[in-house]
Amino acid sequence: MNRLVQPMRRCRIPSLAHYPTCRIAPAIWRCSSFSTASPGSETGYNVTDADIMALSKLRQHSLSLADLVKHGRPPLSEKSLLSSANFTLSLLPIRLAHRLQALRNLPYIVVSNPNISRIYSTYLNSLSILLPYWRAAAEGRPIHSLEEEIRFTNTLAELVAMHTDTIPILARGFLECRRYISPPRSPPSSTSTCAPASAPASSRSSTSPSTSAASLTSTRRPARPPAPSTPPSSASSTPPSSPPP
């Protein structure tokens, strides 16, 4: 019970100037922003709805083999290390924002699942850690020293360890929600409702107008009696006379 009440206490605060407002959402999403301590900083950093919306509207860069090998083989030079770190920094916040927005678009019965909410919280925490680096690079202060590159690499290693079980947890959450979601109904096809019923193609092709007219005539007219057979002629029925002795 304490675990259910505790998220609500984060929103029941005396002042709205320092804390986010409440919303009707799953327990882990009841606040409009998320704050955490950024690496190497003593103050917390907030991820707002505007941040997520702005990043999710940016196009995701599709990684190619050229992107993976363009920095060369290890050991890399200082220039290659800094270039690789800044290139990685330019990709991860956008991808995390796309994941968060995709989870927000799910039905309420899905996002209220504890496993799905846990993954959402993990994504949000990761974005709050990387967003200070992202904004510093946007202001013209990218990663420019080996000390910053080492600190950023250690941060990424922690995030990778944090997301190790993301796929199994998501799969468990979706399996638990499957029983509450009915499959979408397929719309009826236009041919089955609008097209008039017709005879099969085989019967249409085998029946011609002349055939149908002949069958109609034969049903209306009585059948003629068979013609009497011609009696055999006398010449053929009389046996030949025997010659005189």
Can you walk through the features of this model?
This protein is mainly alpha-helical. It has a domain at 49-180: Butyryl-CoA Dehydrogenase, subunit A, domain 3 (Up-down Bundle), CATH 1.20.140.20. The chain contains twelve helices and two strands. The chain has a two-stranded antiparallel sheet with strand order 1-2. A hairpin with a 6-residue loop joins strand 1 and strand 2 (44-48). Helix 2 crosses helix 4 (78-104) and helix 4 (78-104) packs across helix 6 (114-138). Mean pLDDT is 73; it is low at 1-44 and 202-214.
- CATH first level of one domain: which class? Mainly Alpha
Multimeric organization: single chain
How does CATH name the architecture of one domain? Answer: Up-down Bundle
Strand content: under 5%
Low-pLDDT ranges:
1-44, 202-214
Subcellular location: Mitochondrion matrix
Protein name: Protein-serine/threonine kinase
EC number: 2.7.11.-
Family: Belongs to the PDK/BCKDK protein kinase family.
Short recap of the structure:
This protein is mainly α and 245 residues long. 54% of the residues lie in helices and 4% in strands.
Layout: helices, strands, pairs:
Blueprint: H1 2-9, E1 33-37, E2 44-48, H2 49-56, H3 65-69, H4 78-104, H5 108-111, H6 114-138, H7 146-162, H8 166-177, H9 190-194, H10 201-206, H11 209-220, H12 234-237
Antiparallel strand pairs: 1-2
Helix pairs in contact: 2-4, 4-6, 4-7, 6-8
